[in-house]
User: Which sequence fits this backbone?
């Protein structure tokens, strides 16, 4: 079974500052997708960003960007200009191969945003 | 569109009781799945379905049954509840694999307590 490691159980960031959440994984696949999901206190799972492993260019969605290092099997999330609404649990989740839709989730990183 | 609807939102059971968690989606998604989330853990896949009449096991299937008689519905059945099944359950759906789009849409979750 695939394992996903998020080494930072908790992190905090000052409002308007930048924070990076780390994620490493193992997979034997060459073509797969990786996702970051956000879970605020409401419990709703919300997609933040996704990356296709065959694309070398790192994905960006507004204030959110990733640093994808395929050889190192590393997929970190950078949040710029942090806002109070960014406070949540963040989960890294690679799938089991392109098109599989079966995600393996890390244990999550709890992000606090300090006003 | 309602998206993915889960019922009930909260449920308390006694050990040995049976119940069904309902999941319905109105997006004509072919892929549906059930995850459970325990404290300090990421989401873990229980069962999934790639279309009506087709189901398969995920990482933690023991103690759970599923069926998929229609595209819209994917109920999760606990035949004899155990305290170890106390968890928050999430249903998720997505487009067909062939389309290449693979973003999961999650329901709001169902919190189950087994006494």
Assistant:
């Amino acid at each position: 079974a695939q394992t996903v490691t998020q080494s930072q159980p908790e992190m905090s960031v000052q409002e308007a500052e930048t924070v990076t959440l780390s994620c490493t994984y193992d997979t034997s696949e060459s073509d797969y997708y990786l996702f970051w999901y956000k879970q605020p206190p409401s419990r709703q799972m919300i997609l933040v960003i996704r990356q296709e492993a065959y694309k070398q260019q790192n994905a960006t969605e507004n204030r959110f960007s990733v640093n994808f290092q395929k050889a190192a099997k590393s997929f970190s999330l950078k949040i710029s200009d942090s806002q109070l609404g960014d406070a949540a649990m963040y989960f890294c989740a690679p799938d089991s191969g392109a098109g599989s839709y079966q995600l393996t989730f890390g244990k999550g990183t709890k992000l606090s945003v300090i006003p | 569109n309602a998206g993915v609807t889960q019922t009930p939102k909260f449920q308390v059971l006694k050990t040995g009781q049976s119940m069904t968690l309902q999941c319905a989606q109105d997006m004509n998604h072919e892929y549906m799945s059930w995850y459970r989330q325990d404290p300090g853990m990421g989401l873990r896949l229980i069962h999934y379905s790639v279309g009506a009449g087709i189901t398969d096991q995920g990482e933690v299937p023991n103690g759970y049954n599923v069926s998929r008689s229609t595209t819209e519905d994917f109920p999760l059945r606990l035949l004899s509840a155990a305290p170890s099944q106390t968890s928050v359950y999430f249903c998720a759906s997505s487009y067909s694999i062939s389309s290449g789009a693979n973003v999961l849409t999650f329901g709001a979750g169902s919190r189950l307590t087994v006494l």
The mean pLDDT of chain B is 92. The longest strand of chain B covers residues 43-51.
